[in-house]
Write a structure and sequence with these properties.
Length: 63
């Protein structure tokens, strides 16, 4: 990887009420991803949103 490559290791993932999971977006920082997940979660739908990091492969938070 060189300096001109943008790394977006943070994912926001959505799970609908049928258990289907979808990638919502990729972000450069955990804070940015959590802000998006919180914003989507606050809409009051049945979907769950959480943040995952591709670099360590684990979920970081839940919605």
């Amino acid at each position: 990887m060189n300096d001109s490559t943008i790394t977006l290791p943070w994912l926001v993932v959505r799970q609908d009420d049928n258990g289907n999971r979808y990638r919502v977006g990729r972000y450069a920082t955990r804070a940015e991803a959590e802000e998006i997940a919180d914003s989507l979660d606050s809409r009051g739908h049945k979907q769950l949103y959480w943040v995952e990091c591709l670099e360590d492969g684990g979920a970081v938070g839940g919605g």
